[in-house]
Prior knowledge:
By secondary structure, this protein is an alpha+beta fold. It contains 7 helices and 12 strands.
Amino acid sequence: MDIIFLEEVDSTNSYAKQNIKKHDDKTIIVAKRQTSGRGRLQRKWIDLGEGNIFCSIILKPSSRFNEIYSNLTQYLCVILCRILEQYNITPEIKWPNDILIDGEKIAGILCETIMQGENFNGLVLGFGINLKATIENLAHIDKKATALNLKTNNNINTQDFLLSIINAFFTDYESFLSNGFISIKEEYISKSNFLGKEISVNILNNVKTGLAKDITNKGELLLVKNNDIINLTIGEII
Ligand code: BTN
């Protein structure tokens, strides 16, 4: 497994996408600083300064896209929670792949499928984790956000933290590829903060409200409204 360390880059996901053909499966791109970090739904991912994690993993699990790959963000969510829990905090998952502590976002995941015409070139699984911030620089983020140093009152060693994630990610990765979401379903549900609640989900600017009833074996959110059941594969709980 190769790890490429960059001092500064626009976005580790963009870098990984542009260079995907040059790099092998499981290559990791890490940057100290990101000048144009990207989030889901065309949002920005703000750089809170050195000591935070900006990382993208290039994955080439096969020559054809498999629908299991859509659940890699949820798999990574579970892995990030496992590592965060080692710091005596209780992270929660907000479907599909935000990680919160006390209702404030600490990590985000952006997975991109790289196609060239009909050909599947691989995936870029990017994640950002706030390990080091001040209340002042968190105020630049338009949503409630937090950082691990503020929750633990300790400085976190960025490199050790990242290596723990990478080790944990690849320990169960092959089993995840063979078995899919079901292999992490129970753990994902146990860390979820929305099940059993009335929620609203923004799906491409169409808001649906209902009871968050369950997560299916494929990682979809089941929303129930007046005896109608909706299976959601994309969207954002608002
Ligand atoms: C989100 O919560 O919307 C996803 C945020 C993903 C941010 C990470 S930081 C490293 C990688 N490079 C990017 O440009 N984005 C991801």
